[in-house]
Design a protein that fits this description.
Two copies of one chain form a homodimer. By secondary structure, the first copy, chain A, is of the alpha+beta class. Chain A is built from seven helices and eleven strands. The first copy, chain A, has a four-stranded antiparallel β-sheet with strand order 1-8-3-6. Chain A has a four-stranded antiparallel β-sheet with strand order 2-7-4-5. In chain A, strands 9-11-10 form a three-stranded antiparallel β-sheet, with helices on one face. The first copy, chain A, binds a DNA duplex through helix 6.
DNA sequence: TCCATTCCTTGACGCAGATCAAGAGCCAAA
DNA sequence: TTTGGCTCTTGATCTGCGTCAAGGAATGGA
């Protein structure tokens, strides 16, 4: 069931052109090839706990992970959603501030932290790409803050579906044709943690969007979107801001 | 009233050791010195509008700016708070996604975008420092997401005061002695935009924290904190997480 | 000195979303 | 086939915060 990835050549890697190594040339890739190793995680398994000493950094190759923060009384907020090619870990700091958890079976391409940091200081291509990725994440976090702070429950759900559709579209090569459709990679509870809601409210709002014809459900997890502009309108986004398609 | 900053030597600059230029050596500083210029903004004045073409990047030298996002119907969320030494602008992208506004009189040290980008690609010290600063901002954004998504109004206010106290403490050299005290650099409405609340709720919760002795007000803007641990407890933070003092 | 403006506080009331509760659908193990 | 464990849906009720409204305090300009 689970891919094995005992060792894949970087040149054959599915995330070769999107990950931290995207700008590396053949020499640099060979150097990374030396220090990398693959690691698999099962759905639900912790990758790192907040406060843990972290001995590696790396990229998600396949599967989905979440970054969450939990308060003492159990309230929980998701603060990052990691798809293939996303980077895990913070160079220059010994521990993480958030829990990282695999929500599906997942494979990571790991680098031991020290050699990677050393390489980063001598190889501008890596630091440059990591800066670019971090700036993108910061933009996404800020968009997310608007959702958390100011949007209604219905708008939050519509926004989440739009975001997932956009990210899925970005990962695939081909243009989506026909009706746009998305597999939600999260349970209702995880969506609630993403959006600062309860799982009951998530369920109710999904039902409401379905009744109103904004989305079509096939099973619990699969969503078709008859009219993407309608969805973006429900999300409260500028009609042009989507840059989807 | 307003500082003039016609031209300050980098070596005398108050943010020399915290800004994007922190790691630059004398040569690199001389190069930056060539391309920099100062620009002043009045309280309330826009620095850049969302979507504008941006012809410069730069550092806040003195004063405070906010980064905000606004929905079509006027709902507004602050997504960044810029204090002296913070960086404005995104290398490698031609426009900004957020409104940047001076909330006090403010001085920026600006670099024209193109020469700065060119220098970044040849001077690792700048890209490295910018990466570090961006990672810090991302951490702050994620902490903020927990506040927006899961905290109560009272916890939000306590968290904001704690954050401002922490950042002010970071900017000053000397250890604060005696009772910790903070000047709120924001109006009630700006605090509301920061926290995803209304200004009325902000006002009510500040009054409540005052009545309960968690904070002491002197005027509307000045807050003293008799017991920082009590404040952090009210903020819902781990007692140890503060790293203040 | 007076007035206008901006910022802040406080009260009354309503509603969106939380909480509490029950049960349905689905899958895997017994 | 039954049982137990998830995940999800839906209903009833409660409550924290938003909304609407009025007025106070501070500041600056005429």
């Amino acid at each position: 069931m689970q891919d094995h990835f005992t060792h894949v050549q970087c040149s054959d890697c599915p995330i070769r052109h999107r990950a931290v190594c995207a700008r590396c040339d053949a020499d640099e890739l060979a150097q990374l090839e030396q220090m990398k190793y693959y690691r698999s995680f099962q759905a639900g398994q912790a990758i790192i706990w907040s406060g843990d000493r972290m001995e590696f950094v790396g990229s998600v190759v396949s599967g989905i992970a979440t970054l969450t923060q939990t308060m003492e009384d159990g309230r929980r907020q998701m603060v990052g959603l990691l798809l293939p090619s996303d980077f895990v870990g913070r160079p220059g700091r010994s521990s993480v501030a958030f829990d990282v958890t695999a929500t599906t079976d997942l494979v990571m391409c790991c680098f031991r932290k020290k050699p990677f940091e050393d390489m980063m200081s001598t190889t501008p291509h890596i630091a440059q790409r990591l800066l670019e990725m971090t700036l993108d994440e910061l933009d996404a976090a800020r968009e997310w803050m608007l959702i958390l702070g100011r949007k209604t429950a219905r708008e939050k759900i519509a926004s989440l579906i739009a975001i997932i559709a956009r990210r899925e579209a970005g990962l695939r090569k081909r243009r989506p044709q026909g009706m746009l459709s998305v597999d939600l990679p999260l349970t209702r509870e995880e969506m609630a943690d993403y959006l600062g809601l309860t799982l009951e409210t998530v369920s109710r709002q999904i039902s409401a969007l379905r009744k109103d014809g904004v989305i079509v459900l096939e099973g619990n997890r699969h969503v078709s979107i008859p009219d993407i502009d309608r969805l973006l309108e429900e999300a409260g986004d500028d009609s042009d801001g989507g840059m989807l398609v």
